[in-house]
Amino acid sequence: MIVAGRTGTAVLLACAALAASLPLWAEPYTLQLASTALVLAMFALSLQLLVGGTGLVSLGHAAFFGIGAYAVHLMEAFGPAPSILLTLPAAILLAGLAALVVGALALRTRGFFFLMTTLAFGQMLFFLFHDTPLGGGADGVFVGRPALSALGFEYAVGRRDRPAVMLLLNLGILLAMYGGLAALLRTMFGRALLGIRANEHRMSSMGFDTYSLKLGAFVTAGSLAGVAGHMAAMTEAFVTPELLGWHHSAEALLAILLGGLGALHGPILGAVVYVGLGEVAQSITERQRLVEGVVILLVVLALPRGLTGLRLPAARRPGLRLPAAERAEP
User: Fold this and answer.
1) What does DSSP say about strands 153-154 and 149-150: parallel, antiparallel, or unpaired?
2) How is 211-262 classified by DSSP, letter by letter?
3) What tens digit of pLDDT does each residue of 273-322 get?
4) Which residues have a Cβ under 8 Å from the Cβ of 229 and sit 6 or more positions away?
5) Contact 53, 112 (CB under 8 A)
6) Alpha carbons 201 and 175: distance in angstroms, whole number
7) Quick one: which of 112, 154, 159, 223 has the most CB atoms within 10 Å?
8) What is the DSSP annotation of 162-179?
């Protein structure tokens, strides 16, 4: 999987600077929409570690996203507004433990069977929160946003300033997640994962414990999905069992396909385009999903490598190409 080079990094930083400037001039609705795109980017980025890093396609990845979101609700037992220093580690821990259990069993299968196994586990967790009072039932539940505190200092955030603060917080976490995964892929563990994707049998014959490596990637991806779910709960102040549904995993896969399967920064671009496309489609027609489907189909057919596969045509420099007569041998 390709990590953005200097040019790609510069573009990402420019986009981050643009997003950071939104609170200065954008309205609250735009800030909320941008936060939604950033949360989806986090979630798709966590799934990219599996799909683009090891070649594992999971339709149950949303289960870990939902567990991270419901961790905020479960932590309310310790107070009406527990600190983010408590809720965020709890979301990471719960999602990571769930990924450990699911991955330990699912990774004993391959290919289509792995896909269906993750889907089955995801649906079981979905119905656990949907059909029981554990998470507030089928209709979901409002949650109190965790208090923004650090090292004992409380940061009072008014209702009017909340969208801007959440946007900047989501942006910071997304950048930290991207930087962490970029560093991880450059380690021996990350290179081993890419080797497994290329040829697992060869990596196994070289002495690598491919099962443990894939399980480590699965748990890491699940924990990061828990971070994304936690930030979704903080952004929306509402959690619902639909967050654990397979269609939410499909949205992350679509973001990866739109952005680029072979690039780490692909899901970020894909998530922004996917959320923006949904907003535009909703403004022009009542059949939003139909328009989204047609556009996504056209993009996938025209750009099989996603948006990161776009290449500007090389400019022809005069004087570098010799006439045919001069190129001919004497």
Assistant:
1) antiparallel
2) HHHHHHHHHHHHHHHHHHHHHHHHHHSEE-GGGGSHHHHHHHHHHHHHH-TT
3) 899 888 888 878 777 778 778 887 887 788 777 777 766 444 444 444 44
4) 43, 64, 65, 66, 67, 68, 69, 70, 71, 91, 95, 243
5) no
6) 34
7) 223
8) HHHHHHHHHHHHHHHHHH
